[in-house]
């Protein structure tokens, strides 16, 4: 597994990191911070013997210009799966794997929103590319409400590496594209599937489209031709949830 050091902020994000067993180095808390959530966080930190530094708000503002809610923490690492780890997931899941692949998606907030939805929809693994993808940083963690600690994220040298692996396991690959003829409501998602979402500005790259088994789209009834990628991803993932569970 590859590891990257990062900084997280926000009460909920830090709580999620603790609950997920992440190795937290230190937590900076604003002096005089009050509220039920802040009290619960401080109680948990003391119980877990995690080092706390009570600092003025100016110190937190220097650590991050973001809305930190009076809490900033440093964690030892964010863990990423390898292509071999992805292979193990596919081997274990057999006919029920749910994989989400992000092709050059670069907006941190979209990425965080997608990770949060993927965790709620019980996606088994999110696949991103080592270069050109949104980083997993404090913004991602906060936007995902800490979901990055609960859903496996696999980094590959190129998206095509993951697509070739999926083909070996005979997992159908569905590319989200407005050029598709079939909608998600005309598509069966009863067994294993991999959904590929493209970048915010260019969509799926032509090389990735060529490796997809099917193209799917979301019906657009208004004047605007496309949805925000995070919203589109959520719509597709919850159609999968509906078909598999209801």
How do you describe this structure in short?
With about 250 residues, the chain is α/β, with parallel strands linked by helices. The protein has helices at about 10-20, 35-45, 55-65, 85-95, 110-120, 140-145, 160-170, 205-210, 230-245; strands at about 1-10, 25-30, 50-55, 70-80, 100, 125-130, 155, 175, 180-185, 195, 215. It folds into two domains: about 1-80, 60s Ribosomal Protein L30, Chain: A (2-Layer Sandwich); about 80-245, SPOUT methyltransferase, trefoil knot domain (Alpha/beta knot, 3-Layer(aba) Sandwich).
Helix content: 25-40%
Helical segment tally?
A: 9
Which CATH class of the largest domain applies here?
Alpha Beta
The Cα radius of gyration reads 19 Å
Total domain modules? 2
**Distance between the ends:** 36 Å
Average pLDDT metric: 89
CATH architectural name of the largest domain: 3-Layer(aba) Sandwich
Shape category: elongated
Record the strand order, biggest sheet: 7-6-5-10-8-11-9
SS-based class: alpha/beta
């Amino acid at each position: 597994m590859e590891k990257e050091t990062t900084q997280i902020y926000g009460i909920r994000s830090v709580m999620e990191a603790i609950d997920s067993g992440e190795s937290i180095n230190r937590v900076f808390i604003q002096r005089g911070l009050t509220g039920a959530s802040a009290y619960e966080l401080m109680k948990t930190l003391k119980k877990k013997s995690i080092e706390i530094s009570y600092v003025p708000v100016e110190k937190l503002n220097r650590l991050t210009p973001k809305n930190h809610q009076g809490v900033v923490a440093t964690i030892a690492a964010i863990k990423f799966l390898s292509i071999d780890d992805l292979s193990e997931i596919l081997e274990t899941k057999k006919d029920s794997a749910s994989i989400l692949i992000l092709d050059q998606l670069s907006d941190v907030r979209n990425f965080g929103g997608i990770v949060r939805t993927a965790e709620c929809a019980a996606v088994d693994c999110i696949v991103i590319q080592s270069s050109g993808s949104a980083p997993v940083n404090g913004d991602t963690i906060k936007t995902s409400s800490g979901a990055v600690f609960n859903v496996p994220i696999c980094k590959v040298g190129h998206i095509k590496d993951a697509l070739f692996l999926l083909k070996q396991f005979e997992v159908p690959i569905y590319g989200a594209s407005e050029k598709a003829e079939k909608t998600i409501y005309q598509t069966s998602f009863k067994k294993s599937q991999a959904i590929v979402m493209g970048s915010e500005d260019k969509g799926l790259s032509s090389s990735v489209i060529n490796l997809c088994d099917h193209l799917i789209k979301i019906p657009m009834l208004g004047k605007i031709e496309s949805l925000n990628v995070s919203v589109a991803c959520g719509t597709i993932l919850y159609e999968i949830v509906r078909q598999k569970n209801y």
